Amino acid sequence: MRFIGREKELGDIKRKLDNDRSECLLLYGRRRVGKSELIKESLRQINATVVHYVCRKASFEQNLAGLSLVVAEAFDEPVQFNHFGKLLEYVYKKAKNQKVIMVIDEYPFLRGDNEAIDSELQISIDTWQHESCLKLILCGSYVQIMQKLIESDAPLFGRFSEIIKLKPFDYYDTAKFFPSKSLEEKFLVYSIFGGIPFYLIQIDEALTIEENIKRLLIPEGSLLEGEIRLQLKAELSKEENANLVLEKIANGVGKYRDIANFLRNSSNISPILSKLSGMGLIEKDSPINAASSKKQHRYIICDNLLDFYYSYLFKETTARSIMSPDVFWDRNIKEKLASEYLPRKFEQISMEYLLRENRAGRIEPPFSAIGRYIYNDRAKGQNGEFDVVTEDNVGFTAYECKYKKEPLGMKVVNEEKWQAEQLGIKFYRFGFFSRSGFSEEIDPSQYKLISLQDMYK
Protein backbone atom coordinates (compact mmCIF):
# COMPACT_ATOMS: atom_id res chain seq x y z
CA MET A 1 0.00 0.00 0.00
CA ARG A 2 1.32 3.44 -0.91
CA PHE A 3 2.25 5.92 1.80
CA ILE A 4 -0.17 8.88 1.93
CA GLY A 5 0.32 12.38 3.31
CA ARG A 6 2.48 13.39 6.30
CA GLU A 7 4.79 15.44 4.05
CA LYS A 8 5.77 17.88 6.80
CA GLU A 9 6.35 15.25 9.47
CA LEU A 10 8.27 13.06 7.05
CA GLY A 11 10.49 15.97 6.06
CA ASP A 12 11.13 16.94 9.69
CA ILE A 13 12.17 13.40 10.64
CA LYS A 14 14.35 12.86 7.57
CA ARG A 15 16.23 16.11 8.20
CA LYS A 16 17.13 14.86 11.67
CA LEU A 17 18.14 11.43 10.38
CA ASP A 18 20.26 12.82 7.54
CA ASN A 19 22.54 15.06 9.61
CA ASP A 20 25.75 14.02 11.42
CA ARG A 21 24.64 14.89 14.94
CA SER A 22 23.14 12.86 17.74
CA GLU A 23 19.38 13.40 17.87
CA CYS A 24 16.52 12.36 20.11
CA LEU A 25 13.02 12.44 18.64
CA LEU A 26 9.66 11.97 20.33
CA LEU A 27 6.74 10.78 18.21
CA TYR A 28 3.38 10.17 19.81
CA GLY A 29 -0.32 10.13 19.05
CA ARG A 30 -3.43 8.06 19.55
CA ARG A 31 -3.80 4.43 18.47
CA ARG A 32 -3.99 3.72 14.74
CA VAL A 33 -2.97 7.24 13.69
CA GLY A 34 -0.02 5.94 11.65
CA LYS A 35 3.07 6.48 13.83
CA SER A 36 4.77 3.20 12.98
CA GLU A 37 4.12 3.63 9.26
CA LEU A 38 5.60 7.13 9.40
CA ILE A 39 8.74 5.75 11.03
CA LYS A 40 9.03 2.95 8.46
CA GLU A 41 8.67 5.46 5.64
CA SER A 42 11.28 7.73 7.26
CA LEU A 43 13.77 4.86 7.36
CA ARG A 44 13.46 4.04 3.68
CA GLN A 45 16.67 4.71 1.72
CA ILE A 46 18.54 5.67 4.91
CA ASN A 47 22.07 4.29 5.03
CA ALA A 48 22.38 3.37 8.69
CA THR A 49 22.32 0.48 11.14
CA VAL A 50 18.75 0.29 12.45
CA VAL A 51 17.71 -1.04 15.85
CA HIS A 52 13.90 -1.20 15.81
CA TYR A 53 12.09 -2.74 18.76
CA VAL A 54 8.33 -2.71 19.38
CA CYS A 55 7.73 -3.03 23.13
CA ARG A 56 5.13 -5.47 24.36
CA LYS A 57 2.64 -5.28 27.18
CA ALA A 58 4.95 -7.31 29.40
CA SER A 59 7.37 -6.84 32.28
CA PHE A 60 10.35 -4.51 32.02
CA GLU A 61 12.69 -7.50 32.16
CA GLN A 62 10.92 -9.18 29.22
CA ASN A 63 11.06 -6.02 27.14
CA LEU A 64 14.72 -5.42 28.01
CA ALA A 65 15.49 -8.99 26.90
CA GLY A 66 13.67 -8.40 23.63
CA LEU A 67 15.46 -5.09 23.05
CA SER A 68 18.80 -6.77 23.83
CA LEU A 69 18.11 -9.43 21.23
CA VAL A 70 17.34 -6.80 18.58
CA VAL A 71 20.55 -4.91 19.46
CA ALA A 72 22.59 -8.11 19.20
CA GLU A 73 21.11 -8.88 15.77
CA ALA A 74 21.65 -5.34 14.49
CA PHE A 75 25.38 -5.37 15.32
CA ASP A 76 25.87 -9.12 14.84
CA GLU A 77 27.45 -9.52 18.27
CA PRO A 78 26.43 -11.96 21.05
CA VAL A 79 25.58 -9.29 23.62
CA GLN A 80 22.96 -9.37 26.36
CA PHE A 81 22.05 -6.68 28.89
CA ASN A 82 20.51 -6.80 32.33
CA HIS A 83 20.60 -3.03 32.75
CA PHE A 84 18.96 -0.48 30.45
CA GLY A 85 21.74 2.05 30.98
CA LYS A 86 24.38 -0.45 29.83
CA LEU A 87 22.42 -1.22 26.69
CA LEU A 88 22.17 2.48 25.88
CA GLU A 89 25.89 2.96 26.53
CA TYR A 90 26.69 0.10 24.15
CA VAL A 91 24.52 1.53 21.35
CA TYR A 92 25.84 5.07 21.83
CA LYS A 93 29.42 3.79 21.59
CA LYS A 94 28.60 1.84 18.44
CA ALA A 95 27.25 5.07 16.95
CA LYS A 96 30.60 6.86 17.39
CA ASN A 97 31.93 5.61 14.08
CA GLN A 98 28.74 4.86 12.17
CA LYS A 99 25.23 6.18 11.86
CA VAL A 100 22.86 4.22 14.07
CA ILE A 101 19.10 4.70 14.38
CA MET A 102 17.41 3.18 17.41
CA VAL A 103 13.61 3.15 17.47
CA ILE A 104 11.83 2.18 20.68
CA ASP A 105 8.20 1.83 19.63
CA GLU A 106 5.44 1.77 22.27
CA TYR A 107 7.91 3.11 24.82
CA PRO A 108 5.25 3.27 27.61
CA PHE A 109 5.23 -0.56 27.70
CA LEU A 110 8.97 -0.53 28.46
CA ARG A 111 8.73 2.32 30.93
CA GLY A 112 5.58 1.30 32.77
CA ASP A 113 5.15 3.44 35.88
CA ASN A 114 8.89 3.51 36.54
CA GLU A 115 10.17 7.05 35.92
CA ALA A 116 13.69 5.80 36.65
CA ILE A 117 13.72 4.48 33.08
CA ASP A 118 13.33 8.07 31.87
CA SER A 119 16.28 9.04 34.07
CA GLU A 120 18.43 6.29 32.54
CA LEU A 121 17.68 7.72 29.11
CA GLN A 122 18.36 11.28 30.26
CA ILE A 123 21.76 10.31 31.72
CA SER A 124 22.74 8.47 28.54
CA ILE A 125 21.69 11.37 26.29
CA ASP A 126 23.57 13.90 28.40
CA THR A 127 26.67 11.69 28.55
CA TRP A 128 26.95 10.68 24.91
CA GLN A 129 25.12 13.18 22.72
CA HIS A 130 28.29 15.11 21.82
CA GLU A 131 30.42 12.00 21.21
CA SER A 132 28.03 9.90 19.16
CA CYS A 133 25.80 10.03 16.10
CA LEU A 134 22.93 8.00 17.51
CA LYS A 135 19.46 8.85 16.27
CA LEU A 136 17.08 7.82 19.04
CA ILE A 137 13.32 7.76 18.34
CA LEU A 138 10.81 7.17 21.13
CA CYS A 139 7.31 6.38 19.94
CA GLY A 140 4.09 5.68 21.81
CA SER A 141 0.30 5.58 21.74
CA TYR A 142 -0.40 6.22 25.40
CA VAL A 143 -0.80 9.96 24.99
CA GLN A 144 -0.93 10.81 28.70
CA ILE A 145 2.37 9.05 29.45
CA MET A 146 4.12 10.42 26.36
CA GLN A 147 3.06 13.99 27.17
CA LYS A 148 4.47 13.60 30.68
CA LEU A 149 7.92 13.03 29.15
CA ILE A 150 8.06 16.66 28.01
CA GLU A 151 6.73 18.33 31.13
CA SER A 152 9.11 20.78 32.78
CA ASP A 153 9.73 18.58 35.84
CA ALA A 154 10.32 15.38 33.81
CA PRO A 155 13.84 13.89 33.50
CA LEU A 156 13.69 14.05 29.69
CA PHE A 157 12.51 17.66 29.51
CA GLY A 158 14.66 19.58 27.01
CA ARG A 159 16.34 16.43 25.64
CA PHE A 160 14.22 16.03 22.51
CA SER A 161 15.42 17.78 19.37
CA GLU A 162 12.11 17.07 17.63
CA ILE A 163 8.67 16.49 19.15
CA ILE A 164 5.85 15.37 16.87
CA LYS A 165 2.30 14.78 18.05
CA LEU A 166 0.80 12.97 15.09
CA LYS A 167 -2.81 13.94 14.44
CA PRO A 168 -5.49 12.36 12.26
CA PHE A 169 -5.68 13.48 8.63
CA ASP A 170 -7.87 16.44 7.77
CA TYR A 171 -10.58 16.23 5.12
CA TYR A 172 -8.16 16.96 2.25
CA ASP A 173 -5.58 14.27 3.01
CA THR A 174 -8.31 11.76 3.87
CA ALA A 175 -9.62 12.13 0.32
CA LYS A 176 -6.28 10.85 -1.04
CA PHE A 177 -7.22 7.36 0.17
CA PHE A 178 -10.15 7.31 -2.27
CA PRO A 179 -9.05 8.79 -5.61
CA SER A 180 -11.90 7.14 -7.52
CA LYS A 181 -14.68 8.44 -5.26
CA SER A 182 -16.74 11.53 -6.06
CA LEU A 183 -16.32 14.71 -4.02
CA GLU A 184 -19.62 14.02 -2.27
CA GLU A 185 -18.41 10.55 -1.32
CA LYS A 186 -15.05 11.87 -0.09
CA PHE A 187 -16.87 14.38 2.10
CA LEU A 188 -19.18 11.65 3.41
CA VAL A 189 -16.28 9.30 4.22
CA TYR A 190 -14.49 11.97 6.24
CA SER A 191 -17.65 13.13 8.00
CA ILE A 192 -18.38 9.65 9.30
CA PHE A 193 -15.06 7.76 9.49
CA GLY A 194 -12.74 10.69 10.24
CA GLY A 195 -9.05 10.80 9.43
CA ILE A 196 -7.47 7.82 11.21
CA PRO A 197 -5.56 5.80 8.56
CA PHE A 198 -6.39 2.39 10.04
CA TYR A 199 -10.11 3.15 9.90
CA LEU A 200 -9.86 4.41 6.33
CA ILE A 201 -8.12 1.32 4.98
CA GLN A 202 -11.00 -0.81 6.25
CA ILE A 203 -13.32 0.88 3.75
CA ASP A 204 -14.06 -1.24 0.69
CA GLU A 205 -13.93 1.04 -2.35
CA ALA A 206 -16.05 -1.42 -4.32
CA LEU A 207 -18.96 -0.68 -1.99
CA THR A 208 -20.90 2.53 -1.49
CA ILE A 209 -20.21 4.62 1.62
CA GLU A 210 -23.62 3.62 2.96
CA GLU A 211 -22.76 -0.07 2.50
CA ASN A 212 -19.47 0.43 4.32
CA ILE A 213 -21.24 2.09 7.26
CA LYS A 214 -23.63 -0.83 7.47
CA ARG A 215 -20.72 -3.28 7.39
CA LEU A 216 -18.17 -1.56 9.64
CA LEU A 217 -20.22 0.39 12.17
CA ILE A 218 -23.87 -0.53 12.58
CA PRO A 219 -23.67 -4.22 13.64
CA GLU A 220 -23.25 -4.68 17.38
CA GLY A 221 -19.61 -5.54 18.11
CA SER A 222 -18.48 -4.29 14.70
CA LEU A 223 -14.81 -3.82 13.93
CA LEU A 224 -14.79 -0.06 14.39
CA GLU A 225 -16.95 -0.15 17.50
CA GLY A 226 -14.29 -2.42 18.98
CA GLU A 227 -11.60 0.09 18.00
CA ILE A 228 -13.47 2.89 19.77
CA ARG A 229 -13.70 0.87 22.97
CA LEU A 230 -10.03 -0.13 22.85
CA GLN A 231 -9.06 3.50 22.38
CA LEU A 232 -10.93 4.52 25.54
CA LYS A 233 -9.78 1.56 27.62
CA ALA A 234 -6.15 2.29 26.82
CA GLU A 235 -6.15 5.60 28.69
CA LEU A 236 -9.22 5.67 30.95
CA SER A 237 -9.82 3.63 34.08
CA LYS A 238 -13.62 4.07 33.96
CA GLU A 239 -14.83 3.72 30.42
CA GLU A 240 -18.48 4.12 31.40
CA ASN A 241 -17.95 7.72 32.55
CA ALA A 242 -16.19 8.56 29.29
CA ASN A 243 -19.07 7.03 27.34
CA LEU A 244 -21.57 9.21 29.18
CA VAL A 245 -19.53 12.36 28.62
CA LEU A 246 -19.03 11.64 24.92
CA GLU A 247 -22.71 10.82 24.45
CA LYS A 248 -23.79 14.12 26.02
CA ILE A 249 -21.30 16.17 24.00
CA ALA A 250 -22.38 14.46 20.76
CA ASN A 251 -25.96 15.45 21.54
CA GLY A 252 -25.19 19.12 22.14
CA VAL A 253 -24.47 19.18 25.88
CA GLY A 254 -21.13 20.94 25.69
CA LYS A 255 -20.74 23.24 28.69
CA TYR A 256 -18.78 22.01 31.69
CA ARG A 257 -21.61 22.63 34.17
CA ASP A 258 -24.19 20.87 32.02
CA ILE A 259 -21.99 17.80 31.47
CA ALA A 260 -21.23 17.60 35.20
CA ASN A 261 -24.96 17.49 35.99
CA PHE A 262 -25.20 14.08 34.31
CA LEU A 263 -22.40 12.46 36.37
CA ARG A 264 -23.16 11.00 39.77
CA ASN A 265 -19.83 12.28 41.05
CA SER A 266 -19.18 15.65 39.41
CA SER A 267 -15.62 15.71 40.80
CA ASN A 268 -14.76 13.13 38.12
CA ILE A 269 -15.55 15.48 35.26
CA SER A 270 -12.27 17.43 35.11
CA PRO A 271 -9.97 14.36 34.84
CA ILE A 272 -12.21 12.80 32.19
CA LEU A 273 -12.37 15.96 30.09
CA SER A 274 -8.62 16.45 30.48
CA LYS A 275 -7.83 12.91 29.33
CA LEU A 276 -10.25 12.99 26.41
CA SER A 277 -8.75 16.32 25.35
CA GLY A 278 -5.21 14.97 25.63
CA MET A 279 -6.17 12.00 23.48
CA GLY A 280 -7.42 14.37 20.78
CA LEU A 281 -11.02 13.12 21.04
CA ILE A 282 -12.60 16.33 22.30
CA GLU A 283 -11.55 19.97 22.35
CA LYS A 284 -12.63 23.16 24.04
CA ASP A 285 -14.42 25.47 21.63
CA SER A 286 -14.37 29.18 22.51
CA PRO A 287 -16.03 32.05 20.62
CA ILE A 288 -13.63 34.16 18.60
CA ASN A 289 -15.04 37.33 20.19
CA ALA A 290 -15.33 36.03 23.77
CA ALA A 291 -12.38 33.67 24.21
CA SER A 292 -11.83 34.75 27.82
CA SER A 293 -15.43 34.13 28.90
CA LYS A 294 -15.61 30.73 30.59
CA LYS A 295 -19.40 30.82 30.39
CA GLN A 296 -19.15 30.65 26.61
CA HIS A 297 -16.72 27.73 26.46
CA ARG A 298 -18.06 24.40 25.29
CA TYR A 299 -16.64 21.00 24.48
CA ILE A 300 -17.06 19.40 21.08
CA ILE A 301 -16.03 15.99 19.74
CA CYS A 302 -13.23 16.55 17.24
CA ASP A 303 -13.06 12.95 16.02
CA ASN A 304 -15.71 12.34 13.38
CA LEU A 305 -16.01 8.60 13.92
CA LEU A 306 -16.70 9.13 17.62
CA ASP A 307 -19.12 11.95 16.83
CA PHE A 308 -21.11 9.72 14.48
CA TYR A 309 -20.96 6.73 16.83
CA TYR A 310 -22.18 8.61 19.90
CA SER A 311 -24.76 10.54 17.90
CA TYR A 312 -26.48 7.50 16.35
CA LEU A 313 -25.15 4.15 17.56
CA PHE A 314 -24.01 4.13 21.18
CA LYS A 315 -27.47 4.30 22.78
CA GLU A 316 -28.98 1.85 20.29
CA THR A 317 -27.19 -1.36 21.20
CA THR A 318 -30.41 -3.35 21.53
CA ALA A 319 -31.91 -2.06 18.30
CA ARG A 320 -28.69 -2.75 16.43
CA SER A 321 -28.61 -6.31 17.75
CA ILE A 322 -32.16 -7.18 16.63
CA MET A 323 -32.50 -5.09 13.43
CA SER A 324 -30.79 -5.61 10.13
CA PRO A 325 -28.24 -2.86 9.31
CA ASP A 326 -30.45 -1.83 6.36
CA VAL A 327 -33.52 -1.27 8.53
CA PHE A 328 -31.55 0.45 11.29
CA TRP A 329 -29.99 2.81 8.73
CA ASP A 330 -33.36 3.73 7.23
CA ARG A 331 -35.13 4.25 10.55
CA ASN A 332 -32.45 5.74 12.78
CA ILE A 333 -29.82 7.46 10.66
CA LYS A 334 -30.65 8.31 7.06
CA GLU A 335 -32.91 11.34 7.52
CA LYS A 336 -31.07 12.97 10.43
CA LEU A 337 -27.72 12.43 8.77
CA ALA A 338 -28.73 14.56 5.78
CA SER A 339 -30.64 17.24 7.69
CA GLU A 340 -28.52 17.65 10.84
CA TYR A 341 -25.18 15.84 10.90
CA LEU A 342 -23.72 16.53 7.45
CA PRO A 343 -24.51 20.28 7.45
CA ARG A 344 -22.58 20.51 10.73
CA LYS A 345 -19.66 18.60 9.25
CA PHE A 346 -19.70 20.88 6.21
CA GLU A 347 -19.03 23.78 8.57
CA GLN A 348 -16.15 21.79 10.06
CA ILE A 349 -14.41 21.13 6.76
CA SER A 350 -15.01 24.75 5.76
CA MET A 351 -12.89 25.72 8.75
CA GLU A 352 -10.30 23.10 7.83
CA TYR A 353 -10.16 24.48 4.29
CA LEU A 354 -9.58 28.02 5.58
CA LEU A 355 -6.83 26.79 7.91
CA ARG A 356 -5.07 24.95 5.06
CA GLU A 357 -5.26 28.02 2.83
CA ASN A 358 -4.08 30.33 5.60
CA ARG A 359 -1.07 28.15 6.45
CA ALA A 360 -0.17 27.98 2.76
CA GLY A 361 -0.18 31.78 2.54
CA ARG A 362 -3.13 31.90 0.15
CA ILE A 363 -5.38 34.12 2.27
CA GLU A 364 -4.74 37.87 2.29
CA PRO A 365 -4.56 39.31 4.80
CA PRO A 366 -3.76 36.16 6.77
CA PHE A 367 -6.02 35.61 9.75
CA SER A 368 -4.83 35.11 13.31
CA ALA A 369 -7.97 33.49 14.75
CA ILE A 370 -10.89 31.40 13.54
CA GLY A 371 -14.06 30.22 15.25
CA ARG A 372 -17.68 31.01 15.93
CA TYR A 373 -18.84 34.56 16.69
CA ILE A 374 -21.54 34.94 19.36
CA TYR A 375 -24.02 37.79 19.80
CA ASN A 376 -26.56 38.74 22.45
CA ASP A 377 -28.88 41.64 21.64
CA ARG A 378 -30.81 42.11 24.87
CA ALA A 379 -32.89 44.97 23.48
CA LYS A 380 -34.23 42.76 20.70
CA GLY A 381 -34.15 39.58 22.70
CA GLN A 382 -31.85 37.91 20.20
CA ASN A 383 -28.85 35.71 20.82
CA GLY A 384 -27.04 33.26 18.63
CA GLU A 385 -23.85 32.86 16.66
CA PHE A 386 -22.19 33.04 13.28
CA ASP A 387 -20.55 29.63 12.84
CA VAL A 388 -17.37 30.43 10.87
CA VAL A 389 -15.61 33.77 11.38
CA THR A 390 -11.95 34.74 10.94
CA GLU A 391 -10.10 37.68 12.42
CA ASP A 392 -7.17 39.47 10.78
CA ASN A 393 -5.48 42.86 11.15
CA VAL A 394 -8.37 44.56 9.34
CA GLY A 395 -11.26 42.99 11.22
CA PHE A 396 -13.70 40.08 11.03
CA THR A 397 -14.76 38.06 7.98
CA ALA A 398 -17.99 36.05 8.30
CA TYR A 399 -18.54 32.86 6.28
CA GLU A 400 -21.91 31.25 5.77
CA CYS A 401 -21.89 27.51 5.02
CA LYS A 402 -24.75 25.91 3.09
CA TYR A 403 -24.97 22.17 2.56
CA LYS A 404 -27.79 22.28 0.03
CA LYS A 405 -28.50 20.47 -3.24
CA GLU A 406 -29.22 23.74 -5.06
CA PRO A 407 -26.70 26.53 -5.81
CA LEU A 408 -26.43 29.31 -3.25
CA GLY A 409 -28.09 32.54 -4.45
CA MET A 410 -28.32 36.24 -3.55
CA LYS A 411 -31.14 35.56 -1.10
CA VAL A 412 -28.70 33.87 1.28
CA VAL A 413 -26.09 36.60 0.73
CA ASN A 414 -28.57 39.37 1.50
CA GLU A 415 -29.92 37.57 4.56
CA GLU A 416 -26.43 37.16 6.00
CA LYS A 417 -25.55 40.82 5.49
CA TRP A 418 -28.94 42.00 6.77
CA GLN A 419 -28.61 39.94 9.95
CA ALA A 420 -25.19 41.42 10.71
CA GLU A 421 -26.46 44.96 10.05
CA GLN A 422 -29.50 44.47 12.29
CA LEU A 423 -27.27 43.26 15.11
CA GLY A 424 -24.81 46.10 14.62
CA ILE A 425 -21.94 43.69 13.90
CA LYS A 426 -19.30 45.10 11.58
CA PHE A 427 -17.93 42.33 9.39
CA TYR A 428 -15.71 43.98 6.81
CA ARG A 429 -15.98 41.01 4.46
CA PHE A 430 -18.35 38.14 3.76
CA GLY A 431 -17.63 34.69 2.37
CA PHE A 432 -19.83 31.75 1.43
CA PHE A 433 -19.26 28.00 1.27
CA SER A 434 -21.68 26.03 -0.89
CA ARG A 435 -21.95 22.31 -1.51
CA SER A 436 -23.51 22.92 -4.93
CA GLY A 437 -21.85 26.07 -6.20
CA PHE A 438 -23.35 29.52 -6.72
CA SER A 439 -25.94 31.20 -8.90
CA GLU A 440 -24.71 33.57 -11.61
CA GLU A 441 -26.37 36.56 -9.91
CA ILE A 442 -23.64 36.68 -7.25
CA ASP A 443 -20.68 38.90 -8.13
CA PRO A 444 -17.56 36.83 -7.22
CA SER A 445 -15.48 40.02 -6.96
CA GLN A 446 -17.61 41.16 -4.00
CA TYR A 447 -17.50 38.02 -1.89
CA LYS A 448 -15.28 35.02 -1.19
CA LEU A 449 -17.09 32.11 -2.82
CA ILE A 450 -15.92 28.55 -2.14
CA SER A 451 -17.65 25.47 -3.54
CA LEU A 452 -17.10 21.83 -2.58
CA GLN A 453 -15.07 21.50 -5.78
CA ASP A 454 -12.83 24.41 -4.70
CA MET A 455 -12.22 22.76 -1.35
CA TYR A 456 -10.79 19.62 -2.96
CA LYS A 457 -8.56 21.28 -5.57
Description:
The chain has 457 residues and is α/β, with parallel strands linked by helices. It has three domains: 7-165, P-loop containing nucleotide triphosphate hydrolases (Rossmann fold), CATH 3.40.50; 171-334, Arc Repressor Mutant, subunit A (Orthogonal Bundle), CATH 1.10.10; 347-455, Trna Endonuclease, Chain: A, domain 1. The protein has 20 helices and twelve strands. The protein has helices at residues 7-18, 35-43, 60-75, 84-94, 107-111, 116-128, 143-148, 171-174, 183-193, 197-200, 209-216, 223-235, 239-250, 256-260, 269-278, 304-312, 317-322, 325-359, 410-423, 452-455, and strands at residues 23-28, 49-54, 100-105, 134-140, 162-165, 282-285, 298-301, 369-377, 382-391, 396-402, 427-434, 448-451. It has a five-stranded parallel β-sheet with strand order 2-3-4-1-5. Strands 8-9-10-11-12 form a five-stranded mixed β-sheet, with helices on both faces. Strand 8 (369-377) and strand 9 (382-391) form a beta hairpin. Helix 13 packs across helix 16. The longest helix is centred in the C-terminal third of the chain and has 35 residues, at 325-359. The radius of gyration is 25 Å and the shape is globular. The two termini are 24 Å apart. The mean pLDDT is 94.
Helix tally equals 20
Shape label? globular
Class of secondary structure makeup: alpha/beta
Main beta-sheet strand count, sense and barrel state: 5 strands, parallel
Estimate nothing, just give the exact number of structural domains.
3
Order of strands across the widest beta sheet?
2-3-4-1-5
Give the total of beta strands. Answer: 12
Give the oligomeric state of the chains in this entry, treating copies of one chain as homo and distinct chains as hetero.
Answer: single chain
Helix content: 40-55%
Strand-residue fraction? 15-25%
Radius of gyration: 25 Å
